[in-house]
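Notebook, student rotation project (T.W.).
Task set for the rotation: take a protein with a known small-molecule partner, predict the structure of the complex, and write up what can be learned from the model alone. Partner molecule chosen: S-adenosylmethionine. Sequence and SMILES entered below by T.W., checked by me.
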Amino acid sequence: MSSSGVVSLQNPKPFLKWVGGKTQLISEIDQLINKIIDEENFCYIEPFVGGGAVLFHILNQFNNIENIVINDINHNLVNAYREIQKNPLELIDLLLDIETNYYTLKNREEKANFYLAKREIFNRFNDYSLEKIALLLFLNKTCFNGLYRVNKKGKFNVPFGQYKKPNICDKNNLISVHHYLQKVKVLQGDFEETLKYAIKPSIFYLDPPYKPINLTSSFTSYSEQIFDDNEQIRLKKFCDEIHRQGNYFILSNSDVKNYDHSNNFFDELYKQYNIKRVKVRRNINSKGNKRGEIFELLITNF
Ligand SMILES: C[S@@+](CC[C@H](N)C(=O)[O-])C[C@H]1O[C@@H](n2cnc3c(N)ncnc32)[C@H](O)[C@@H]1O
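Predicted structure of the complex:
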């Protein structure tokens, strides 16, 4: 609170860790958006929002964008966005309770057991509930690498992580996110459904589940459905439609050439668009302990 008694909001940031977070690509994406941002009635659409690294950057940086639409296929994730948008206070209370209990636990074994008990409860809820959202945020902050992975039955199965004092309830951020989400339309469903929300000129930022770059990385499944090559081809047709309707798109994806130089999958698929290779540092094996420099793709129609 400032001396005038007015609560000042911090800049909102992702309230969940999410695999594929785009922090390292943001300055490139920023430059691209700046190229076209001076157009009027600009609409920003993010069909695979995940943890929203780019969304929150946009909300901080471009306060003249009034129409913002986000979407994800993951029900639990979208329910969390919607609840925080509507009323974060009850959620904060629930999370503070969990956090207080967690901090009193003495050792790793007690914490791991607590985590597994909460994971079990999380998987027992079938539908939406406020408690389930609080558990999602707790599990995300305490699980291995902040992964969201489910088995074939859709049950969350990530093991316990190794964090000394995870920030389970970041109250100020949740309040800030609540305020900034007021101008955002939050959808749950398949990416194709977002096209009908486009108001010309719209910019789509597309960050689909990555095409597995090696065998071990294919274990990262955000939902029961797998995003295979046919899905990548369906996404390309979606990009064609965005383009045909006079809108803009920026698509990021893994570069299959990191591991197989002769693989031309994306170069062929997107040959009529601009493909830029950007160097990033990533965990490059499933244990998350091996980091290396690899390239990612940024594909645009402008
Ligand atoms: C690479 S992640 C996005 C990461 C995000 N850019 C971030 O910063 O956290 C891909 C997202 O696509 C979602 N997804 C998978 N298949 C989808 C589909 N058919 N339609 C919409 N979203 C989908 C997943 O649930 C996941 O959240």
